[in-house]
Design brief:
The chain has 3 helices and 5 strands. The chain has about 130 residues and is α+β, with helices and mostly antiparallel strands. Strands 1-3-4-5-2 form a 5-stranded antiparallel sheet. Strand 3 and strand 4 form a beta hairpin.
Amino acid sequence: MPVRVYYEDTDASGIVYHANYLRFIERARTDVLRCAGLDHRRMMDAEDSTAFAVRQMDIRFHAPARLDDALEVRTRFTELRGARIRAAQSVWRGETLLFEAQVEVAVLDGAGRARRIPAFVRDALAAYVG
């Protein structure tokens, strides 16, 4: 997913503020779900509702992104098991790795309790696992 760094993304020195990398990767995960045919709103509004919540993150900063940089966020799912989904995400500027994260997401029902990954979610994400 392409991302452009805007003034609002940076700190006073023109470098991307560290928390904004989390925004970049959240949007990328959402876009991958959308590309896979999964609609958050429809899933939450369904009678058998399904939602996702970040449970854990392991993040590494390698190099800074700067104002007006053109970035690419790469997302791949590494595990679909039980009530959790794991993703490996990274932010690149050309061939330079800037940021990487291992993200664990809990799958929840409408009451906020953990639930097994529904078959339709597992099937939709199968092409993005690797």
